[in-house]
Amino acid sequence: MAVLARAEAAEIAGALLHDPPALPGWRCLRGPEIGLAMLRGRAGGDGAAFNLGEITVTRCTVRTASGRIGHAYIAGRHLRRAELAALADALMQDPDWRDRLEATLIAPLAAAQDERRAEAEAKAAATRVEFFALRNTRP
């Protein structure tokens, strides 16, 4: 779900809807709908929790014709993306779809996200400044 939550709607739709075997029918049980969620943080990672702020989220729950239920929560205001992610979640629960989606949807999206992350880290590393101080050895 983390891979689907970070993917764009076009990426999910491209893998799900491009030349697939017939997708099962599905209907939305809830949403897609937009709302807010409170972000919480901790000082130093282990201190007392505090409210950091709010983030816009889109959630959706779908049911496939075979009765599988999928859920998705996506940061931002992306109705279609949340619906497609929920559909993918429901299909991943079906043994007939799991391996196919892992190979054609999840693995390629994860690889592309890892590549983008590595590029961003390389750009950041190129601007890294290392500070050091010379120690005065005189008494």
Short key terms for the protein model shown above:
139 residues, alpha+beta, three-stranded antiparallel sheet, elongated
Would you spell out the secondary-structure blueprint of this structure?
Layout lengths: L1 H5 L2 H9 L8 E17 L6 E16 L4 E7 L3 H14 L2 H32 L13
Antiparallel strand pairs: 1-2, 2-3
The assigned structural class equals alpha+beta
* Succession of helices and strands: HHEEEHH
Count of strand segments:
3
* Residues in helices, as a percent range: 40-55%
> Number of helix segments?
4
State which percent range the strand residues make up. 25-35%
Strand order of the largest sheet: 1-2-3
> How confident overall, as mean pLDDT?
89
Global morphology: elongated
Radius of gyration: 21 Å
What's the end-to-end separation, in Å? Answer: 61 Å
Oligomer: single chain
Report on this model:
The chain has helices at residues 2-6, 9-17, 79-92, 95-126; strands spanning 26-42, 49-64, 69-75. It is an alpha+beta fold. It has one domain (2-111). A 3-stranded antiparallel sheet has the order 1-2-3. The mean pLDDT is 89.
Outline of the structure:
By secondary structure, this protein is α+β, with helices and mostly antiparallel strands.
